[in-house]
Amino acid sequence: MIIVKTISELQTARSGLPTPVGLVPTMGFLHAGHLSLVEQARAECKSVVVSIFVNPTQFAPTEDLESYPRDIDRDLALIETAGADLVWMPTPDIMYPPDFQTWVTVDAVTQPLEGAQRLEHFRGVTTIVAKLFNGVQPSKAYFGQKDAQQAVVIQQMAHDLNFQIEIEICPIIRESDGLALSSRNSYLNSDQRQAALILSQTLMTAKSAYESGESDAEAFRQLMLKTIATEPLAKCQYVSIADHLTLNELESVDQDGLFSMAVYIGKTRLIDNYLLRNGTWQTGRRLPQGFEKS
Amino acid sequence: MIIVKTISELQTARSGLPTPVGLVPTMGFLHAGHLSLVEQARAECKSVVVSIFVNPTQFAPTEDLESYPRDIDRDLALIETAGADLVWMPTPDIMYPPDFQTWVTVDAVTQPLEGAQRLEHFRGVTTIVAKLFNGVQPSKAYFGQKDAQQAVVIQQMAHDLNFQIEIEICPIIRESDGLALSSRNSYLNSDQRQAALILSQTLMTAKSAYESGESDAEAFRQLMLKTIATEPLAKCQYVSIADHLTLNELESVDQDGLFSMAVYIGKTRLIDNYLLRNGTWQTGRRLPQGFEKS
User: Fold this and answer.
1) Which residue out of A34, A121, A159, A244 is catalytically annotated?
2) Nearest to B101 among A107, A130, A137 (CB)
3) Residue B276, SS3?
4) Which helix or strand (DSSP H or E) is residue B268 part of?
5) What is the CATH number of domain A183-282?
6) Does ipTM come in above 0.90?
7) What is the DSSP string of B142-202?
8) Which chain B residues contact residue A246 at CB under 8 A?
9) B135, exposed or middle or buried, with CB in 10 Å at 0-12, 13-18, 19+?
10) pLDDT per residue as tens digits for the range B153-183
């Protein structure tokens, strides 16, 4: 496995890779969710590139850039085991030299949900992803459904800017009790870890209501808010039942809808979602019991 | 020569082209300046792609989008003679479908000069160029020094977004009497055509002053303004002596500087520039007398 930092090192290494190339962009501190992306890339592409970069421009000044968890040695071991060919781990000054001044922005689909709470977050995401795409020039790029709005935003950007890259959105990976894997789960103490189950439980409650015939979006939202309120350690930031492409809030739910939420557990902000597509729920995949503890 | 419109037609045609591929982006109504770009691409690349697209997003509502000159049959004949392999001429609805919402913006270097006069112009330029780059995936792309700020902006964008494309800036092509070729020269009547010589004459005057030892940027600006004022049909919009990379106005001129201006001749807005690099003037290349009449 080749490990590179600079753009020119990347170019040299990239030019020797058999195509098609699959890219898995990450911010490191990898968990089984990231590794499932690497596995899918491995299955579909001749070469797999993983990038590790904690992208400063997608963090607000009040957010957790400095404390964002990092463990590069563990990451590299996990990536090698998962069978990647090349790891690109640039430094912030490589990605953002002093005269850096170009931004990629996506308008409508970045406005609600995460975008409404995290101003400029998606500008940072789309800019760095464009840079990763251009640097690696993959045929396919793999993202997780966990960041549901990010998935929509990146697909929109790739389409709008004519990137010749297939964007693959892979299922959420959950612990055996339902908690969606996230690098930020490492912030939770054991009481909070237990309380964090409220996110997936709330989504399950909504799914059950849908299966019992509920279709009114506001009824789903009230049900979700009420469910979250049963957990004393949880503080809801938003719940949303939105169109899965435009992210506009729905009035009623027929065959499609993105059910999502952001909830604080203590100071840790967690997100989760279930996606309803053509009447079928995409809820993610649970790890076997004991496989991973967050 | 293959001619395509849609992205998927482009992909099919592009995949059959020997590499490296050179791209010459144009808005059509080609003149010898455009053709010099095609010739340079032909000399340096195995395949040459020319795009023709009058990009609506780089025109302000008050500008000449509707009346911008077009002659597609003539363009195609000229491009074929110049030896291109592929012409991409998308329609506005292909480039900007109804849900289009992604923009590429460059900050500092788009602010002065053309950017100060033509708000959002460069947002349109950088967005469409990013789309052309991603669609064609060339190794090299060719632009004219005539649009000096555009050249700086595109180089900045390509560097910032890690485009793996060499940006080649080719000399201004001038008529035998010095007028820089421009599709917009077609708007000039014969009196205006004569008056338009004031742009290149003004630059020559500045160059002479430099060669006589002048170094004060403000003295150059005053000299240029005074020279333009001698032409009754000319109305100066700006003159500039700027750093050739940052486009910040200079206080004094040593070995480098971009001397540029925008001047109205009647209702037609014309631009021109001389570039001083390492003490050497880049003034462009004059066509032989009688070679082209604008």
Assistant:
1) A34
2) A107
3) strand
4) strand B268-277
5) 3.30.1300.10
6) yes
7) EEETTSHHHHHHHHHHHHHTT---EEEEEPPEE-TTSPBP-GGGGG--HHHHHHTHHHHHH
8) 99
9) buried
10) 999 999 999 999 999 999 999 999 999 999 9
Considering the segment(s) B2-170 as one domain, its CATH architecture is 3-Layer(aba) Sandwich (3.40)
The widest CA-to-CA distance across chain B, in whole angstroms, is 57
Q: Residue B162: which of A99, A135, A246 has the nearest Cβ?
A: A135
Alpha-carbon distance of A187 to A265, in angstroms, equals 10
pLDDT in the model for residue B294: 46
Cβ-Cβ pairs closer than 8 A, A with B, add up to 79
| CB contact (8 A) between residue B109 and residue A101 | yes
Q: Which tens digit of pLDDT belongs to each residue from A224-249?
A: 999 999 999 999 999 999 999 999 99
pLDDT in the model for residue A294: 46
Give the C-alpha separation, B228 to B271, whole Å.
13
Q: How far apart are CA B90 and CA A237, in angstroms?
A: 44
State the pLDDT at residue B1. 97
What sign results for the dihedral spanned by CA atoms A30, A32, A36, A42? positive
Give the residue from A260, A214, A222 showing the smallest Cα distance to A241: A260
| Structure confidence at residue A292 (pLDDT) | 64
Q: What pLDDT does A148 receive?
A: 98
In the block, residue with structure tokens 């014309």: B270
The answer to whether the bond into B171 is cis (omega within 30° of 0) is no
Nearest CA to B25 out of B89, B81, B101 is that of B89
Rounded Cα distance between A246 and B149, Å, is 36
Interface residues from chain B to A (CB-CB < 8 Å): 7, 11, 99-109, 126-127, 130-132, 134-135, 137, 156-157, 160-164, 246
d(CA A153, CA A246): 10
Q: Is B121 a catalytic residue?
A: no
Q: Is B23 helix (H, G, I), strand (E, B) or coil?
A: strand
Q: Are strands A2-4 and A86-88 parallel, antiparallel or unpaired?
A: parallel
What residues contact A150, with CB distance under 8 A and at least 6 apart? A114, A122, A125, A143
Q: What does pTM read for this prediction? A: 0.96
Class of domain A2-171: alpha beta
Residues belonging to chain A with any Cβ–Cβ distance to chain B shorter than 8 Å: 7, 11, 99-109, 126-127, 130-132, 134-135, 137, 156-157, 160-164, 246
CB atoms < 10 A from the CB of B263, how many? 24
| CB within 8 Å: B134 and A104 | no
Domain coordinates of chain B in residue numbers?
A: 2-170, 183-286
Q: Do A11 and B137 touch (CB under 8 A)?
A: no
β-bridge pairing A257-265 and A234-242: antiparallel
Nearest Cα residue in chain A from B163: A134
Q: Which CATH number fits domain B183-286: 4.10.320.10, 3.30.365.10, 3.40.50.720, 3.30.1300.10?
A: 3.30.1300.10
CA distances from A228 to A195, A242, A286, B9 (A): 10, 19, 21, 50
Q: For chain A, which residues score pLDDT lower than 70?
A: 292-294
* Pairwise CA distance, residues A137 & A14, whole Å: 9
* Contact by Cβ (8 Å): B294, B174: no
